[in-house]
Design goal:
By secondary structure, the protein is mainly alpha-helical. The chain has one domain: ACP-like (Non-ribosomal Peptide Synthetase Peptidyl Carrier Protein, Chain A). Helices cover 53% and strands 0% of the residues. The chain is built from 4 helices and no strands. The chain has helices at 4-14, 37-51, 57-60, 66-75. The longest helix is centred in the middle third of the chain and has 15 residues, at 37-51. The radius of gyration is 11 Å and the shape is globular. The N and C termini lie close together (9 Å).
Length: 76
């Protein structure tokens, strides 16, 4: 079971200081908050590895926020 705290820890680890971690929104798109596409892909790969799941390309576009990632992982 994934939590906001776990996914936030992945975001913090994978993002190269591009966003304001102190004011990050769990519901707003990570891209809209300053995460670039390379960092976003790193986040998705880290989530796949941590939870031993596969996230296909057609699903990735729906996983734009921390909450959407948490919800997806918890439904797997």
């Amino acid at each position: 079971m994934a939590t906001r705290k776990e996914i936030l820890a992945i975001v913090i680890k994978e993002v190269e200081n591009n966003i304001d971690i102190e004011n990050i929104s769990f519901t707003e798109s990570l891209i809209d908050q300053g995460v670039d596409s390379l960092d976003f892909n790193s986040i998705i790969l880290a989530v796949e590895e941590m939870y031993s799941i596969e996230i296909t390309d057609d699903i990735i576009e729906n996983l734009d926020s921390i909450d959407s990632i948490v919800d997806f992982v918890n439904k797997q």
